């Protein structure tokens, strides 16, 4: 009686709509995530040489081929759901370089804005602008057990297994970056993000904040940036930002929080000059209109406006200031 019960239960599970039987194509498991980025090796080695020769030559000589081999060794010929952060230790050691004080920029839900504002290490050096981060930024990869090649068809996502090649890479990269950061630490959050500007479960909360080195950090400055035209869901002193502020204060850090930090807002407004959220820029030229000769027409107004924007941009974004 009991055996027939368990047999019926097993059959029910196998054929229920909640059970997803793994599919295989030509002997390869079909995952939900995107497959390995085509030409991964060429892209990564190219990025490495560009970084040490052009982007940040101050880090000195690096063997890009050796770093690539260490990177690949972490996940090739292994179960793609059994890749641990420690598997990337050799890669991390080979690619590691110092992060200048006051240059670290952490973020959540602001990837493209952060990369635009950091300007490839000229202003700041977020994780994606380090040599380690450049190996994974906007790329995907995985291997498979008993196979020395890449899986270009599909890779497991975090929903399928947490210990996948990409997730584990960013875990150890985040931990390393946090430990290397010093001086004033900057954090850019998205005040319009659904679910909160500061995800209490995320790379910043789980792997970066716990690995801050208190004796190396003088202050932490948080920028909460709303999307242009987006909702103001979170801001300094309330919501999830308040949770972050209280957490950092409990850890003994001096905290400053700024809503819609002006320099970053100016960058965002370059694509939305006429939007009401960008009145910080668009309102300024209106004070000039009384000085414009009517015989000059719109061309002169546009010239004044362009000069003004260029002047403000230089003042706010000149990395020497």
Helices and strands, with pairings:
Blueprint: H1 2-15, E1 23-25, E2 28-30, E3 33-34, H2 40-55, H3 64-73, H4 89-95, E4 105-108, H5 111-118, H6 131-134, E5 154-155, H7 165-180, E6 183-190, H8 203-208, E7 217-225, H9 239-250, E8 255-259, H10 262-269, H11 279-286, H12 297-317
Parallel strand pairs: 4-6, 6-7, 7-8
Antiparallel strand pairs: 1-2, 3-5
Helix pairs in contact: 3-4
GO cellular component, one term: plasma membrane
Organism: Mauremys mutica (yellowpond turtle)
Family: Belongs to the ADP-ribosyl cyclase family.
Q: Could you walk me through the main structural features you see in this protein, from its secondary elements to its overall organization?
A:
It is a single chain. By secondary structure, the protein is α/β, with parallel strands linked by helices. Helices cover 40% and strands 11% of the residues. The protein is built from twelve helices and eight strands. The protein has helices at residues 2-15, 40-55, 64-73, 89-95, 111-118, 131-134, 165-180, 203-208, 239-250, 262-269, 279-286, 297-317, and strands at 23-25, 28-30, 33-34, 105-108, 154-155, 183-190, 217-225, 255-259. The strands form three sheets. The protein has a four-stranded parallel β-sheet with strand order 4-6-7-8, with helices on both faces. Strands 1-2 form a two-stranded antiparallel ribbon. α3 (64-73) runs antiparallel to α4. The longest helix has 21 residues, at 297-317. Residues 5-22 and 284-301 have low confidence and may be disordered. One of its GO terms (biological process) is positive regulation of B cell proliferation. It comes from Mauremys mutica (yellowpond turtle). Pfam families: Rib_hydrolayse (PF02267). It is an enzyme of class 3 (hydrolase). This is ADP-ribosyl cyclase/cyclic ADP-ribose hydrolase.
